[in-house]
Write the structure tokens for this entry.
Amino acid sequence: MNSVIKAIPAPCDPPIALGKLSDQQTAQDAHSDQTRALQSQEPWPPGRLSPDLGLWSDGACHGTERSKAGTVANSGASAMRVEPPGRYCGREFSAADLAHIRELLQIQPALSRVALSRRVCQDLGWLNALGRPKEMSCRVALLRMEKDGWIRLPEPSGKWLQARRPIQLTSASDPSKPVREGSHALQPLVFQKVEGQSLSRLWNELVQRHHYLGYSPLSGAQMRYLVWSADRRLLAALGFGASAWQLKARDQYIGWDDRQRRAGLHRIVNNARFLILPWVKSAGLASGILSGILQPLCVDWRLRYGYEPVLLESFVEIPRYTGASYRAANWIKLGQTQGRGKLEKNNCQIVPLKEIWVYAVHPAFRDILRAPS
């Protein structure tokens, strides 16, 4: 990329939050408010972050504790399995770890799920590079442990209960006026980091309504973006999350062993969702977005997690898509998956086949990923 983007942290609650609803406003009001708010702002210069909106402008594109106490009866905990539970979300849990989690559930049954995940992270030392608890990964791990019969969690409440409700579709995600200009006419593209409930609801709704996989929470470390044209037309949504635990073609490409993979896997980030809105028909836009997102993603990831990704990966379902936009953005195709999914353990194809694409963010990614921990 030719432009340099200055890293300025986005405010937690920007003045314009894409139309936070009062109790009286309808969804249509919100959509209109969002459009008017964005169009009323003066243009921001390329390569800069708009301090009011928390937006990244790419100058040249080429190519979640307060909740009601849950209740749980743990009298049956002793009847559960007692051997080590194994790996969840990239972490190995020992028999001692499992015993400690069960003890927390017994002696503090009023802990909410949010508080429990935070306490587990602190007690087990499950922290990220900035020394912060890896709460999102822990919540997913606890849910999977419960599903596998290792523990019984408190009943969900508060944000957890709300997160399980179906996505409510509103006019905010209705089709808009077609966009048919070439990608150059839409530049500079603006990458808005998704922060706060308003933006999060909009991103979730767009993906649920218009992406063929629909919405599901991203696991582990993650970052989400909305992509806008220079004249404030919403074009796309992207989501980045934890990489696949094991992937033969990728792991052979890196050339690392099991110990190195376990130590360095967090430096690989997965492009889990990439949605060009269906009314946007702009030649070259997809590859331009893939190129333009690199710098804001690296800066935002470092600010949130204390390190930068060195390799990106993505999966393109075939024959639904061809991967042409990844190819045009200089990603490399490594092969294809075997259709087993993340959690399948019987070597059976349970999901469609997908092509594996990677992009080297750092030229020395192999040396970094294979370096001693």
Q: What stands out?
A: Residues 1-53, 60-79 have pLDDT under 50 and may be disordered.
